[in-house]
Amino acid sequence: SAVACVVVGAANEKLREVHQVGTGKIKELPLLGAEVLQVHAPPFVTKESASSETHGHAPAFSRVQRRRSFIKKKKERAGIANGETAKGSDGGGGTTTEDISVPKDLDLIALPQLCFPGGLQIASEQREDSYHYLVFTDVFGNRTHAVVVQYYRPIQDVGHQNGHLSSSKSSRLYTAYGICVISKYPYYNALRDCLSCLLTQLKPSWMGDFEERVKEFSAKLALVPIPPPGQLHVVFNLRPLQIGLPSREDKDRPAIDLDLHLPFLCFRPRQLLQIITSLLIEQRVVLLSCDWARLTLLAESLMLFIHPLVWQHPFVPILSRQMLDFLMAPTAYLMGCHLHHYEEVAAETDDLILVNIDDGTVSSSWSDGIDLPDVPLAAAECFIKRVEGLQVHYDLEVCHLGDSTEVNARRAQRKQWQSKLNTHIQNITLELIVNIFREVHDHLNYEHRVFNSEEFLRSREPADQPFYKKVLDTHIFHSFLRDRLTRKMDAFTRMELSTRTEAYRLRSMTESPRRPTMQELARKYTSPESRLSKRLGASLPNLGESGGSLAGPLRQTSFKNIQVDSGRFRWTAVGSGGQLRSPQRPVRFFKLPEFPPPLAYHYVQNYYQEMITLLGKAISGAASGDSSLLARYHYLRGFVNTVAGKRLDALEDFQNLYKTDTDIFPGELVNALVDSLQEGEQALADRRPEIKHLISRVKRDHERERARHVDEGVKRFQLPKKHMQLEDFVRHVQESGIVKDQGTIHRLFEALTVGQQKQVDPEIFRVFYTFWKETEAEAQEVALPASALEHLEANECVFKLSSSVKTSHGVGKIAMTQRRLFLLTEGRPGYMEVTKFRDIEEVKISSAPFLLLRIPSLKIKTTLRKETFEVNLKSEVDLWHLMVKEMWAGRKMADDHKDPQYMQQALTNALLMDAVVGCLQSQKAIFAATKLAHFDRMKLEVPLMVPKSTSETLKHKINPSLGLTSPQAVDVLLYTPGQLGVSSDSEGDGNPKLWCALSDGKVVVFDAASWSMQQNQVQVGTSRVNCMLGVDRQQVWIGSQDSVIYIISTRSMSCNKQLTDHRSEVTGLSLGERRSDYLNVAYSCSAEGAVIVWDVSTLQVRKQFRVSCDRLQSVQLCNGTLWCCKYTDCIMELWKNGMLHRKISLPEEQLWTACIDVGELCVWHLREPTKPFQRIQLPDCAGVTCLIKVKNQIWVGGRGWSSGKSRGKIYVVDAQRHTVEKELVAHTDCVQALCSAEDRYVLSGAAREDGKIAIWKVE
């Protein structure tokens, strides 16, 4: 790790003056100016210095040769502390500059006053050592961290060359020296402990040894490697303490090596929320304390509390006396200063948030009160409840334990407690951020990188709006949005996904416009005290919950298990600490060897070699299944090989790392390593295919990364200002969030441009958009009588309400939900159901006589009632007629095809008709609206009769392309069974899953228990997926056209492993027969004929061979024999070792094959593989794309004809009798994928025109 060490203190001349005057004569001990006395920065040893040492036979410790007092040196370089370089003018002193090489990114000018922010005070008695912490930020926002110890030594009489003290003890004076250790990483506790160890060596030593000891100390720290993100920590001995460097939890978080509970000891939860608010709305915040150490520790904790939002402004936790004018800066900032400047700071500067750490108060410099918006109520209450359950007192934790006599054991025990507590605190603060911002993603358009801020604001609770208005305009929020739009899989996303309720997942699988559900309307009428907050669930409902179920549990104490399921997310407090459960991964430690003499090159090289050997042993000794730990060892060894100059060995380690965990792959380091290869090394690398492959991949990724950063802006939605052709119109509608589907938008374009030039006027768009939004707002205000709430289902919403009209059942308003029409009677408010859409028989317009006029009315005939329902809708009648017919047609299609999405689309069409009529306000408005009557037209054009066998076998349809702008082909399907005994709050859950590969490497995951979408998408490369395989219940292997096998962890739902040994597209994957508990193999094949046998646990290649053919299509293991399918017309059979063979004696078994362009199946005897013994003709079939065996049936997917149209078809064939039992009309496009769910269901996926997944029951 790059560590620099700087020693700061008073100049010798000043000390000599003070010493000569003597204590008796000084009335007041002076404050002296501090200066830089020494700088020690890497490199401490180089190859060149080693070669010169060998001639001079320098021993390992060069202390004797080099001992020159830093006080003498100070004389020789008076200008250094002012940032000038020594000119070397005073007789040969020019060489001294090489001893004080300054790290280029370190500003030494401000360092002395930061090491002594209160000034350097001469003391008349020995004082306690005092530590504080610093943070430096460069112009790019990169932070450097430092720990400073101030320790006192007696002032020596510098005139005495022998270093003995001349002054008597009674009149002795003491001066402070500041030793500052600077690192790129925030290891505050570890560096503080290192300095404690250094002081035990410095205190008894002569001043002459001082510089050499500090330099040796710095050189030792420079040998310590930084652990990679994950569960591996690095430990080393620096007598008398054992010191640990904790790793970062993941690559997006910094390492946490401080006590995160300190802010909770200083502030009550409400004050903490005020401080967090002032950061989120980018105020000018000043921390004040009498203890310099508290300032930085509190400031750093606050930065971690708002993670993953990143503070973008000046961050200076400690200001010395001379720096107070920084507080006049006009921008937002977070700074800290000593408490005795409080009055001065408050008086001089307006608009400051003053945080008094010592008193636990938050105030403002411009008024007595504090004018900050409140954190959204639901999130705040949840946070306060959590914090009340935190156990932040270590003494309570250990009061039942005896005291350990061994200092390192005691420290380890305390560290373990602290680490656990830090994790709980991070979860609580992350949950706060998630609860504040979780609904942002509902208002994002990923395709055009747009955030609809107005819409987001409008959907907030009125009391929460002031907070969001301020937050939405900040830099901090803008960069958070950028990460959301790139679908960054960080801690925020993981928690947001894992706390969604099932009801939210189900609701998010519909694209229909949002309105308040009955459940939410019911909540409106419950008293605020009896619920956590309606905002918790106001945007989305929980289907299985009654309106008032939020009452009650929250009154309990944190010692109970509390579970509030409020529609939008799960709120769970568990155990005595009320903590969020998060799986604590077991931590492993890698102990470094004892440090060598650190200033001799060959000793340092031997040390690196010893570390490499130890890591090699750790790699071979790691459990083969623990690929995560293996990856961390490879990372460390690659890093050590790099600094030891073994570049090819380092690349080999990084290649293994790439295979086992791409999440922690250090792309920039490897790119720099590749650039530094010498010619000979480059030639050797070219001879090793896996390293050559890694180099080309790293270069490609580097270029892609650079290109990606060019356009990553975030746009706010704005209404168009110019006339729009179709393409522009589609973009604007998608950005507005009204509808995404391109087909629907094309029909809307037709409607808005009826009888005119094919372009939409911006004014028409504005009126249309406004009408749509007003309709949405009106729906929020719908007041329904209690009787209506009782009759409607929890997730029903009122989408359209007529004006007051006369009907055949009295006067009232007609209301439309997604399921039914009902009448809200006036006078005595009441509810009367008109009809559910599925029960309609006929809808027509007629005219009712009224005095001498004829008023147009709508007549609705239903199957459940004899009499026709009539309603005099007057001028609204044509629109209602169109809307009801579209909803009826959509309901019928949804029922026939078991596809609820048809109903959602019909609802969207009906609401768009409403908006079109509302905005056009002309004679042609109704004609324009007919352009949107999509399902009604389909019903008239092609009465889509679903064959009886299809209707009986089909259970349900789901749409994996939901949220995309057009349907995608379903390329591959994979079902993975559930894991019994896995609780839902461990990482991942135990439910069975359906994995669906769409075009361009998108993989969508459904919960197969409820068929709700679990994960919008996991991206595996950008090429088409050819095959998927469930391995070990822990991972899913995905073979891609780009020649890579991607491995997704079923727990974290992320792809962090890649197998890159194939040289062309991966076409098939198959699991070997498990022979024993420890040996598990998988087979993969690629198009050019390569077959690779993998060890599943270590991901190493066990064997590989080639099959000669034009294109190898798939591999399948059957009774010890590997069957390989070629693209032409033959199947080859091999022993598992790769020898081609024909003759085998097996019990009578059959092999079934089919061709992509012939409508027949061939059945082969394995004993006679030269020709099929039976051919089965498939009726009306044009070709077969997939087939699977389910129980004693063969299910065959392909394309064929039905009612004269090309359709995706499935044939169910009896495996014994060889007859076609069922012919199912499955999809409107070819069936591309089939998979079985535990032989109870079969799932089929269709090509792009259809893009749906159908679920069939197996007889």
Plain-language structure description:
- With 1259 residues, this protein is of the alpha+beta class.
- Helices cover 31% and strands 25% of the residues.
- It has 35 helices and 54 strands.
- Strands 21, 22, 23, 24, 25, 26, 27 and 28 form an 8-stranded antiparallel β-sheet that branches.
- A hairpin with a 2-residue loop joins strand 26 (840-850) and strand 27 (853-862).
- Helix 14 crosses helix 18, helix 24 (667-675) crosses helix 26 and helix 27 (726-736) packs across helix 28 (742-752).
- The radius of gyration is 37 Å and the shape is globular.
Architecture blueprint of SSEs:
Elements lengths: L2 E8 L1 H10 L9 E2 L1 E7 L6 H10 L6 H4 L3 H7 L34 H5 L4 E2 L8 E8 L5 E12 L19 E10 L4 H15 L4 H15 L10 E7 L2 E5 L16 H5 L2 H12 L3 E6 L2 H14 L9 E2 L16 E6 L3 H7 L3 E5 L4 E4 L12 H12 L5 H5 L8 H31 L6 E2 L4 E2 L1 H6 L6 H7 L3 H11 L5 H8 L3 H7 L9 H7 L37 E4 L4 E4 L14 E4 L9 H21 L5 H17 L3 H14 L6 H9 L3 H9 L1 H20 L6 E2 L9 H11 L5 H11 L9 H19 L5 H6 L8 E2 L3 E3 L2 E7 L3 E6 L4 E7 L3 E11 L2 E10 L6 E4 L4 H21 L3 H20 L4 H6 L3 H8 L6 H6 E5 L13 E5 L16 E5 L4 E6 L4 E8 L5 E7 L3 E6 L4 E5 L5 E5 L6 E6 L9 E6 L3 E6 L5 E6 L5 E7 L2 E6 L4 E5 L14 E5 ...
Parallel strand pairs: 8-19, 10-12, 10-13, 11-12, 16-20
Antiparallel strand pairs: 1-3, 1-7, 2-4, 5-6, 6-7, 8-9, 13-14, 15-16, 17-18, 21-23, 22-23, 22-28, 23-24, 24-25, 26-27, 27-28, 29-54, 30-31, 31-32, 32-33, 34-35, 35-36, 36-37, 38-39, 39-40, 40-41, 42-43, 43-44, 45-46, 46-47, 48-49, 49-50, 50-51, 52-53, 53-54
